Structure formats: structure tokens, C-alpha cells
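=== RUN LOG ===
request id: a7f3
mode: sequence -> structure
chains: 1
length: 59
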Amino acid sequence: MSFSNLGLSSSLIKIISDQGYTQPYPIQREAIPAILKKQDVLGISATGSGKTASYVLPI
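=== RESULT ===
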């Protein structure tokens, strides 16, 4: 799965790609679609696993 499958805007996907990110981390694959659907999310994952981006990218 790529970032383009998560429901993010095309401009945001371009920025993510320009930064060198090609694949979302597991926490991002689970959290981003749920957040975009306005669901509550409690994400527990290891340090460095992409949690912050999971919460910030859908904003």
C-alpha cells in the first residue's frame, strides 16, 4: 500500500514523495484512513514508527 491509497490529498502525497517517503508505516496505514473518517484513534507503536505523522498528515 502506498500513501496514495490512504485518502490523502494529491498535493500532500507529492510533498511526502518529495521527502523520500514511498510506503506508509503500519501505524499510518491503520490510523490515517480512520482519522480521515473522523473516527477516534488510539495508536500504540514503537518510537520511530511514524505515529506523529499518522496524526498530523490527515489534519
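=== NOTES ===
Residues 6 and 33 are 6 Å apart (CA to CA).
The radius of gyration is 11 Å.
=== END ===
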